[in-house]
Design a protein that fits this description.
This protein is of the alpha/beta class. It contains nine helices and 30 strands. The chain has three domains: about 190 residues, FAD/NAD(P)-binding domain (3-Layer(bba) Sandwich); about 130 residues, FAD/NAD(P)-binding domain (3-Layer(bba) Sandwich); about 80 residues, Enolase-like, domain 1.
């Protein structure tokens, strides 16, 4: 590579939110070389959060969700083209067109795809959908607008719950099947998931927990018409949405020697990819949903985040580090944040609720359906979730960033919190859930005998 880090050939694989923001940031950082962005979808980068909300409600068309460009990144966009391999020694990315792109620096931002229904012949039935892409959302919105008699949603994670909420807002009958004890339990723990279950049932959702869907049935003409459940019951429906979480797009890296697996591509806090032996590379970077990175606030656990804000923040750090010499590189230390609107509730999360052993309601109450719940791990604050109380979130972010003691001190709550009213956070093993959590801790729980002063 040329001695000047701001020149040369840079390639971004993934024409996503992270890919676009990284391309823009590279130009902001003064990069003047050639920039190629490869994306497997034919569309320019678009925004995913509206797909499960405004698009399904019919308030916006799927093809109006394009991301605004903050500036023209002056890139060669290769859309509708899939990366099929990486040779880190020759520094080339192989494409499904048969060509290979040389690079001096590479950013991998391939994101995730929807986890498919495991039986391909059942998944191919007309009326069976997943929701991840713009095309998925357009097709599903059209089917919902046609007024099906019932929609079956498999999986009670955030995406499944938002789909169910949109169905009820459209006046459609909907059944949600979740293997775990309640919707959102993997992301929010036991106490708040009980509130989520009450809200779904109050809004007329036929919520079935502790069951799995065993078979999707067709009518003999290739159309979906119902499903069999593990408790022996049957749901008659003409639309099914499979919301089983996400699969990270790493298969194309199988022979690359990088530390890429089902939980993503491992990288350091500066977004540099690790190889399979745990040695950091210097010219391959990772950002967005496909990355796994260590975070000092969470015991240096490797975090995998499917969060909009994380994709932007990490892309900007990766872009800065791609054009900066070692001492000027900076770490990606943003505290994870996430939000969801469903069944009239605005749920916001900061930190990592799954990294907890205790919770306490610091403000509001479950009965009022307006509250701030604070999560702690071995005596310090690690997360907070607000329900219709988003103004408090900045305060709790500060507690997390400063490793404040748990339960939170006076001033953090609208009542004095005694240690004896904390309750277990009750975060289940993700293996027992239909939906994957949007934040996955993928390392081992750290040894906490050392005290940080």
């Amino acid at each position: 590579m040329p001695g000047d880090l701001k020149d040369g050939r840079f390639v971004i694989v993934g024409a996503s939110l992270a890919g676009l923001r990284a391309a823009e940031a590279l130009r902001d950082e003064g990069f003047t070389g050639s920039l190629t962005v490869v994306g497997d979808e034919p569309h320019p980068p678009y925004d995913r959060p509206p797909l499960s909300k405004q698009v399904l409600l019919g308030h916006a068309a799927a093809d109006t969700t394009g991301l605004p460009m903050r500036r023209d990144p002056d890139a060669d966009w290769r859309l509708g083209v899939r990366a099929t391999g990486l040779d880190p020694l020759a520094k080339r990315v192989a494409l499904d067109t048969g060509e290979s792109l040389p690079f001096d620096r590479l950013l991998i931002a391939t994101g995730t795809r929807a986890r498919p229904w495991p039986h391909p012949e059942e998944a191919a039935l007309d009326g069976v959908f997943t929701l991840r892409t713009r095309d998925d959302a357009g097709g599903l919105a059209k089917r919902l607008a046609a007024g099906p008699r019932r929609v079956l949603v498999i999986g009670g994670g955030f995406t499944g719950s938002e789909i169910a909420s949109a169905c009820r807002e459209r006046g459609l009958e909907v059944t949600v099947a979740e293997r775990g004890p309640a919707p959102l339990v993997g992301a929010l723990g036991g106490t708040l998931s009980k509130l989520a279950a009450v809200m779904q049932r109050n809004h007329g959702v036929d919520l079935r927990c502790g069951v799995t869907v065993t078979t999707l049935r067709g009518d003999g003409n290739g159309r979906f018409n119902g499903a069999d459940l593990s408790d022996g019951s049957r749901v008659d429906a003409d639309v099914c949405v499979v919301a089983l979480g996400a699969v990270r797009n790493v298969e194309w890296l199988a022979d690359s020697g990088l530390a890429a697996g089902p939980r993503g591509i491992a990288c350091d806090a500066g977004c540099r990819a690790f190889n399979m032996y745990g040695i950091v590379t210097d010219d391959v970077f990772v950002a967005g949903d496909v990355s796994r990175f260590p975070h000092p606030l969470f015991g240096y656990q490797m975090l995998s985040l499917e969060h909009w804000g994380n994709a932007i923040a990490q892309a900007e750090v990766a872009a800065h580090n791609m054009v900066s010499p070692g001492p000027l590189r900076r770490p990606h230390l943003a505290v994870p944040e996430f939000w969801s609107s469903q069944f009239g509730l605005n749920i916001k999360s900061v930190g990592v609720p799954a990294f907890s052993d205790q919770v306490v309601i610091a403000q509001g109450s479950l009965e009022a359906r307006r509250l701030a719940m604070v999560y702690g791990y071995q005596g310090r604050v690690t997360a907070a979730v607000t329900v219709d109380m988003a103004k408090s979130l900045n305060y709790y972010r500060h507690l997390i960033e400063t490793a404040a003691p748990f339960p939170p001190p006076p001033g953090a709550a609208d009542r004095a919190i005694a240690a004896d009213i904390t309750i277990p956070s009750d975060v289940p093993d993700p293996k027992g859930l239909t939906h994957g959590p949007t934040v996955a801790l993928t390392g081992y729980l750290p040894d906490r005998r050392l005290t940080v002063v």
